[in-house]
Structures are given as structure tokens and as C-alpha cells.
Amino acid sequence: MARDIYEDHDDTQAPKEGLGNALVYITFLMLALAVFMAQKALKDQYNAGMLADKSQPLVGGN
After folding, report:
1. Which of 22, 2, 21, 41 is closest to 49 using CA atoms?
2. Which of 17, 20, 42, 59 has the maximum number of C-beta atoms within 10 A of its C-beta?
3. Alpha helix (H) ranges present in the chain?
4. Cα 30 to chain center, whole Å?
5. Cβ contacts of 17 within 8 Å, gap of 6 or more
6. Within 10 Å of residue 58's Cβ, how many Cβ atoms?
7. Whole-number Å distance between alpha carbons of 38 and 60
8. Do the domain assignments include residue 8?
9. Number of separate domains in the chain
10. Is the pTM here over 0.85, yes or no?
């Protein structure tokens, strides 16, 4: 009987399952946004990076 009460108490104190998943999704989205913003900044400043127009030469390049 004491074990049943103890397990029930742990279940009520445990964090919700969805919280961990939400933090993973939010972290992934923030990381993806940071990578995109860095690539956009490289394109705007130096015409380099994944978003750059490959048909034009690099700014200041040989």
C-alpha cells in the first residue's frame, strides 16, 4: 500500500511529457533561424555562403 502511494506521488510531481519535446522543437527552430540569419548576413555583406548568387564573383576576391 505504501508503494502505491509513493508511485502516485511521483506521478503527480513529474514534469509533463510534452515539455521536453517542446523544448527540443524550440531549440531546433532557434538554431535553424540562427544559421539562416548568418547565411543571409554573409550573402548581403560578401555575396558568400549558401544563399549567395554563384554567378557573380565574390566581393574583393580575385
Report:
1. 41
2. 42
3. 2-13, 17-46
4. 4
5. none
6. 10
7. 19
8. no
9. 1
10. no
